[in-house]
Design a protein that fits this description.
single chain, alpha/beta, Rossmann fold, six-stranded parallel beta sheet, 26 helices, 16 strands, about 10% strand, globular, binds iron/sulfur cluster, binds FE(3)-NI(1)-S(4) cluster, binds fe (ii) ion
């Protein structure tokens, strides 16, 4: 039986004891119930693509080596991975399309509850997409930006790449991707094509299948970058803000509303309306009014834009309900555990689903549409205020665990902070410090939690080791939340864990930017779609140096990856040219050829490759070595 691992988060561990005492199952209990997990599935050697199956390939070479249709282990593993990439691309791109359509409808005067909060960002985006903006009304520009974005879902010319990817990567990288035939021309078509070619009796050349998957993963990148940039135009580009994180942000004296999921279209309005309903909450007996807290990525979105405190990340979302003080959990899309409704049934908490295509049996569904956003948000908060009255005071147990977190480091914010050192040439101080070795390289830590790892632990081990080795740390998604929850997004963490070179640079930037000390050890860039922010920063560096992304000492790590979205992100990180660490062993080990392709051969094709290593100490060492190799390539 696999070693049973739980969490390194003291708040989650404390709540787990509460769950056990109450006989309520959590994600960790269900993980245990699933052991031992299927060996064929773990190796990617179980095919369920048609109803002649399921077919299983004997990993030891003694039993069947081909599925009933004749598919071999390489085809079976590759098809499964490619479909995961397509699913990830679909998820992120649906989110992106939702935002693009909201901007289109806003520009048509159909949405009274939204406005363009960041006109400068809108104009910058328009410029990147080749849309003339001078002298034009903001909403006209917004319409053109939305239409140009929607072309990325409609273009039928295979030779014309998507607008956003073309505007977001260095020209050298675009050329390389074009030569390899993996530059997406249309997000939807690329997802559909990946599904089509992996249908029974289609693509049976594993390299070709995987190149198709990589194209889908790059469509995921395209969906992600447009989601980030349009969200900034709509709701504001993040800039540094001080807030708090972990379950201690839930206030027994307030009506607590958690926003969980991904899409800021809903959570932004919830945050706005919450303030307006403080008086109603007080009238119901909550002396601190309405307290909105975040979970998962929609939590990250409102955290980096408005400093809304973050309750927790993916794996411990059930624990927020177990505090007995959460009055509503409002969910939209992605990474929402279906178990929430069952846990909430043991408490007074309202789980409110809001997207018609993402319902959960046992939850209350309040259908969300942008046209009536505020009204819907008010209804949801009214449900929370009502639920507050049904709290069982005896069952309230909020762990006294929370940490300060300085968050909100968009690419613009990072460059803005650097400009305080050199207004003319903001990237110069960063490049100078990479060249002189004060900063050895940059690592982006992102991705999920996974019950196969001790929650948040490998993030912390890897970050501390990299920091000691003077690697600048960026974070997104549940990884960023892990750092926020554990106090690694603080100035104290920089003083404690950063190597001398890194500490000196973070201190110089922090002081110049008016902080009384260094920047935090890990820079919170936002949600999972905001991985695009790290690419924006890397692209700015590459363009300034006249090199490709694969030349830069930049690495990526997803130590606890689990979702199809994480598979897509990891794969486009590889295709962008970055050595990419996975701490979860992918369901691919059954094909030595596929493993070799993505861990070795990819390096020659893309410059990036997967580095699979579950042990965080060893992984950190390999990431440092990968950074040194890239530095050597640059003659550093
Ligand atoms: Fe089996 Fe082939 Fe069907 Fe897969 S597609 S289940 S290998 S027959
Ligand atoms: Ni992104 Fe992974 Fe969190 Fe979900 S929210 S759990 S994909 S990192
Ligand atoms: Fe996410």
């Amino acid at each position: 039986m696999e070693k049973i691992t739980v969490s390194s988060d003291p708040a989650a561990t404390e709540m787990l004891a509460v769950a056990t005492a109450a006989g309520i199952d959590t994600v960790w209990d269900r993980h245990r119930m699933q052991q031992p997990q299927c060996g064929f599935g773990s190796l990617g050697l179980c095919c369920r693509i048609c109803w002649k199956g399921p077919c299983r390939i004997d990993p030891f070479g003694e039993g069947p080596q081909f599925g009933i249709c004749g598919a071999d282990r390489d085809t079976i593993v590759a098809r499964h991975l490619a479909r995961m990439m397509a699913a990830g691309a679909a998820a992120h791109s649906e989110h992106g399309r939702h935002i693009a359509l909201a901007i289109l409808h806003l520009s048509q005067g159909r949405l009274a509850d939204y406005k363009i909060h960041d006109e400068a960002k809108l104009l910058a985006v328009a410029g990147r997409l080749g849309i003339a903006a001078e002298g034009r009304a903001v909403l006209d520009v917004a319409r053109d930006v939305a239409l140009k974005t929607l072309e990325d879902f409609q273009n039928q010319d295979d030779e014309t790449p998507c607008n956003w990817i073309s505007a977001s990567l260095p020209a050298k990288r675009i050329d390389r991707l074009r030569q390899l035939g993996v530059l997406p021309h249309n997000i939807d078509a690329t997802v559909a094509r990946t599904m089509a070619r992996t249908h029974v009796g289609c693509d049976a050349d594993y390299t070709n299948v995987l190149l198709g998957g990589i194209r889908a993963a790059l469509a995921d990148f395209n969906g992600m970058v447009l989601a980030t940039e349009l969200s900034d135009a709509l709701f504001g580009t993040p800039s540094p803000v001080v807030t708090t994180a972990n379950l201690g942000v839930i206030k027994p004296t307030a009506v607590n509303v958690a926003v969980n999921g991904h899409n800021p279209l809903l959570s932004e309005v919830i945050c706005d309306v919450a303030h307006e309903m403080d008086a109603e909450a007080r009238a119901a007996g909550a002396k601190d009014g309405v307290n909105v807290v975040g979970i998962c990525c929609t939590g990250n979105e409102v955290m980096v834009r408005h400093g809304i405190p973050l309750a927790t990340n993916y794996l411990s979302q059930e624990m927020a309900i177990l505090t007995g003080a959460l009055d509503a959990m409002v969910v939209d899309v992605q990474c929402i555990m279906p178990s929430l409704a069952r846990v909430a049934a043991c408490f007074h908490t309202q789980v409110v689903t809001t997207m018609d295509e993402n319902k959960i049996s046992g939850a209350t569904h309040v259908s969300f549409h942008e046209e009536t956003a505020r009204e819907t948000a008010r209804r949801i908060i009214a449900l929370a205020i009502n639920a507050f009255g049904r709290r069982d005071q005896a069952r309230i147990h909020v762990p006294d665990v929370k940490h300060t977190a300085i968050v909100g480091f968009s690419a613009e914010a990072v460059i803005g902070a650097l400009s305080k050192l050199d207004a003319e040439d903001p990237l110069k101080p960063l490049i100078d410090n990479i060249v002189n070795g004060n900063i050895q390289g940059v690592a982006l830590l992102g991705g999920c939690n996974n019950t196969k790892s001790t929650q948040d632990e490998s993030f912390q081990v890897i970050a501390k080791t990299l920091a000691k080795n003077n690697v600048l740390l960026l974070a997104t998604g549940c990884g960023a939340a892990a750092f926020a929850k554990h106090g690694l997004m603080t100035q104290e963490a920089t003083n404690l864990y950063a190597g001398d070179g890194l500490k000196a640079v973070l201190t110089a930037i922090g002081r110049a930017a008016g902080l009384d000390g260094p920047l935090p050890l890990v820079l919170h860039m936002g949600s999972c779609v905001d991985n695009s922010r790290a690419v924006a920063l890397a692209t700015a560096l590459a363009d300034k140096l006249g090199v490709d992304l694969s030349d830069l000492p930049v690495v990526v790590s997803a130590p606890e990856a689990m979702s199809e979205k994480a598979v897509a992100i990891g794969t486009w990180a590889l295709a962008a040219g970055f050595p990419t660490h996975l701490g979860t062993v992918p369901q691919a080990g059954g094909s030595a050829n596929v493993v070799k392709l993505v861990t070795e051969d990819a390096k020659g094709l893309f410059g990036g490759y997967f580095l699979v290593e579950p042990d965080p100490e060893v992984a950190a060492g390999k990431l440092v070595a990968a950074i040194k190799e890239k530095r050597a390539g640059l003659g550093l």
